[in-house]
Write a structure and sequence with these properties.
Strand content: 15-25%
Distance between the termini: 36 Å
Largest sheet: 4 strands, antiparallel
Helix content: 40-55%
Shape: globular
Structural class: alpha+beta
Number of strands: 28
Radius of gyration: 28 Å
Strand order of the largest sheet: 7-6-5-28
Number of helices: 33
């Protein structure tokens, strides 16, 4: 594989690869996906670790005697089917090395049967199925984790067919990287391999799974003679919260061209978030040096002690928090005098009261929320802006002494979920130093504030708590149900079986919006064995659901593999709903509901909206076809930013902070100031849906139901047909590996199509208008005509449903 293609693959993997090893085998061995099993079957490859190690060993270019390949080609004519299959599998394994002799055999007019077998070998080596075969082999190898797997994957990596195959190989390497808790020796050796691709791949994998003790070894590559290796090693280490990598990324801005340095600048922009800086464009030496110097100054200006002081000065004492909470409760006092006194004292407390007031103002169950809003309006006039989420990310990188204690102290003052999530991630990153837990985290397990107890337990679990496991388990009996929920979820993801009965018991204790989080987790574990009952559904009382799941655990718990949760990324459970027009509301609407169907917020009066996406900072991108506009708004509907585009379809915020816009005849990428940095036009205005992939390429679907993939420059690299169908919608979900999930309105079904345009999965849904594949493998479907949103499992069974008097054109889960 050409070296230049590897950087975007690594950047993609930094965002996508989880920091765990492969799913452990269940009691009956690993479960192989049907598509992977079929791909191996076509190549006559047995699904075993030993066979797949040999497959990758042969796929790696080497000097193979021609007589060996000649004998295998002859064996395709053997009278024994088993001998034919063995030869077929070996020739496919040798890949490109067998091509010349196979071509000769494929043109042998005297032996048509052998010619046909040779042609099938060639298709699996060179045809559209070739990459799928290698990807399937890598995934199955990762499941079996046989000895020698890391060695053959590393050897093959520089010869991967394309970026997607390289991605699969890296993911498989991540899965097999550890044996008995220690990195495979092949990975450590690869850090000094003469081929740059292997050095970079080993650095990425070790940064993710090797632990702090191996970081110094990886850091040596920050001084590698190859700039490409320095870039990829720095990206991997920076993603693992290693501050030594950031100055290297900054220095590379002056050394590399803007295109080469794009992954580094994108990482810095994501890291900086709301604090990102504007740098000059251009490829001349002065522009590159200015970019480096400006980012270097930014890095120096956000050092650890300064950030620590910002967190501390914005953190009220626990006594002040208790006083503020009491005053807020007093806003609902029957006595007008008591209420007025509470308002006066809250205003005296100043900005320290704002976080708790904001929570009260947004609590639909708090009767005095209007008074809380009035206090907020008075206080926010003089209040400084809240700390952005970037502050927590940067603190985790700089790791100043006292960071964990400061984050835990500040946590109850957090105002939005994005900041709470960043603080939780920072606590996990800072949880251990030299293999020992931070004392502040251990002490917080007994903190009086429930949020701190739960956050400390989560951080210790995510950091790999072993010695503290018993202390964390004690919180499974915490008096606060929300603490038990968070601790049980964290322990379940850490594969602690004691957590599951606690999760089941919580089904009857939690409010519906939290109970469905438990149900989603349990369904990810149960798969097809899940009880035939739905929380909140007909006959699905909390007590009956608890009892049904308890019976399931008693029957199947001994054989359930908790590693199934690794692939089921936890979402917030909020569903974004786009209504193009509502007669009752006299216009379009974008709204968000929680898992129980309760309205969280809504923006009314929109002009035929077709798409929306919640973005960091509790803002939302909205596409309005009626006025040819894409806007970014706060959750009250105030416009922060807007961009005109003809016949708009969709908008998505990219990891680098830019925004990708899709119209019927135009695809655009714009920066934070609205400046166009990429454009692609189709004069026929035939774009039906489009999506920018994490690797920088673009997938689009046309009105003729032609799937097209463009590279990062807009050049077409692949196309195929998947239809046609009589209904057009932009509510399509583009999946990895050129697969597409489509709502087929007139056929009353949703369907998944593979990279050859073949339907590989379907489920019945009346008049679907949009689809989304969720991380747990389920599918979210909206039906505007049917006035409902459903979540289906892989068997097509409804596991969640929301119905009301509305017309959900599109739905997205986050």
């Amino acid at each position: 594989m050409p070296r230049g293609r590897f950087a975007p693959v690594l950047l993609l993997l930094l965002a996508l690869i989880p920091g765990q090893t492969a799913p452990a085998a269940g009691v009956d061995g690993p479960t192989i996906a049907a598509a992977d099993e079929q791909a191996l079957k076509l190549a006559r490859l047995p699904p075993s670790g030993t066979a797949l190690v040999e497959f990758f060993r042969k796929r790696t270019p080497a000097d193979v005697p021609e007589k060996t390949l000649t004998a295998l080609v002859r064996q395709l004519a053997d009278s024994s089917t088993a001998a034919q299959d063995r030869a077929f599998a070996e020739l496919v394994s040798y890949g490109p090395m067998a091509v010349p002799l196979l071509r000769r055999a494929a043109n042998d007019l005297d032996n048509p049967e052998v010619a046909e077998r040779a042609r099938r070998c060639l298709e699996l080596i060179e045809g559209p199925e070739a990459a799928a075969l290698v990807g399937a082999a890598a995934r199955v190898l990762a499941l079996f984790r046989p000895p020698g797997a890391a060695e053959v994957l590393l050897a093959y990596l520089p010869f991967a067919d394309d970026d997607q195959v390289a991605e699969e190989v890296i993911q498989a390497l991540t899965a097999v990287a550890l044996r008995d808790g220690k990195p495979e020796p092949a990975l450590l050796r690869a850090l000094e391999d003469p081929i740059a691709t292997r050095r970079a791949g080993a650095a990425l994998v070790l940064s993710r799974v090797g632990g702090a003790e191996h970081r110094p070894t990886v850091r040596r590559l920050l001084h590698d003679p190859k700039a490409s290796v320095r870039l990829q090693a720095a990206l991997a280490l920076a993603q693992a919260n290693d501050a030594a990598a950031v100055p290297v990324l900054i220095d590379l801005l002056a050394e590399l061209s803007p295109e080469q340095a794009r992954p580094a600048e994108e990482f810095l922009t994501r890291l900086a978030g709301e604090w990102a800086i504007t740098v000059p464009p251009g490829n001349d030496n002065l522009s590159r040096r200015l970019r480096r110097d400006l980012w270097a100054a930014w890095w120096r200006g956000t050092d650890g002690p300064l950030l620590l002081e910002e967190f501390r000065k914005r953190t009220p004492s626990d006594a002040d928090r208790e006083k503020i909470a009491g005053l807020i409760r007093q806003l609902d006092d029957p006595s007008p005098a008591a209420r007025e006194q509470a308002v006066a004292e809250l205003l005296t407390m100043g900005s320290a009261a704002v976080p708790l007031l904001r929570r009260a103002a947004n609590d639909s169950g708090f009767r005095a929320r209007d008074r809380a809003r009035q206090c907020l309006q008075l206080l926010e006039r003089e209040r400084s802006a809240p700390l952005p989420a970037a502050a927590a990310r940067l603190l985790a990188l700089h790791r100043p002494a006292g960071a964990v204690a400061a984050l835990l102290a500040y946590l109850p003052s957090v105002e939005d979920e994005s900041m709470a999530g960043e603080i939780q991630a920072a606590l996990a990153a800072l949880a251990y130093q030299d293999g020992k837990p931070d004392p502040a985290l251990v002490n917080a397990l007994e903190d009086q504030v429930a949020e701190r107890r739960a956050a400390a337990a989560e951080a210790l679990c995510r950091g790999g708590a072993t010695e503290q496991r018993q202390a964390v388990r004690r919180l499974l009996h915490d008096p606060e149900p929300t603490v038990r929920l968070r601790v049980a979820l964290a322990l379940a993801h850490a594969r602690d079986r004691q957590a599951v009965p606690v999760l089941i018991s919580l089904l009857a204790e939690l409010p519906p919006e939290l109970g469905v989080q438990v149900e989603s987790c349990l369904r990810s574990l149960a798969g097809d064995q899940a009880p035939d009952i739905l929380l909140g559904g007909e006959g699905g009382s909390p007590e009956k659901c608890r009892d049904a799941w308890a019976a399931w655990w008693n029957e199947h718990g001994h054989s359930i593999d908790l590693a199934r949760l690794d692939a089921a990324q936890r979402l917030l459970g909020y569903t974004l709903v786009v209504e193009q027009y509502s007669q009752a509301r006299r216009g379009g609407r974008v709204a968000e509901i929680d898992a129980a169907g309760k309205l969280r917020w809504e923006i009314l009066g929109l002009q035929n909206p077709s798409d929306a996406q919640v973005v960091p900072g509790e803002r939302v991108l909205i596409v309005e076809q009626g006025i040819s506009q894409v806007s970014e708004r706060d959750l009250k509907g105030n416009i922060i930013w807007q961009k005109q585009i003809n016949l708009p379809l969709a908008a998505e915020r990219l990891p680098n902070g830019n925004t990708f816009l899709a119209g019927r005849g135009l695809l655009l990428e714009v920066d934070r100031n609205g400046k166009e940095v990429f454009s692609y036009s189709r004069p026929g205005n035939d774009i039906m849906a489009a999506h920018k992939r994490p690797d920088g390429q673009i997938a689009l679907l046309t009105y003729s139901w032609t799937y097209i993939r463009l590279d990062a420059r807009g050049k077409e690299v692949k196309s195929f047909r998947i239809g046609p169908f009589p209904f057009y919608t932009n509510g399509i979900h583009f999946l990895p590996n050129d697969r597409v999930l489509v709502p087929e309105y007139n056929a009353n079904r949703v369907a998944e199509y593979n990279a050859e345009g073949k339907r590989v999965w379907e489920a019945a849904v009346p008049m679907p208008s949009s689809v989304q594949r969720l991380p747990n493998g389920n599918t979210l479907v909206s039906s505007a005509a049917g006035q409902r949103i459903v979540e289906l499992n892989r068997a097509g069974k409804v596991v969640w449903e929301h119905k009301e008097n509305f017309n959900p054109w599109r739905a997205r889960r986050r």
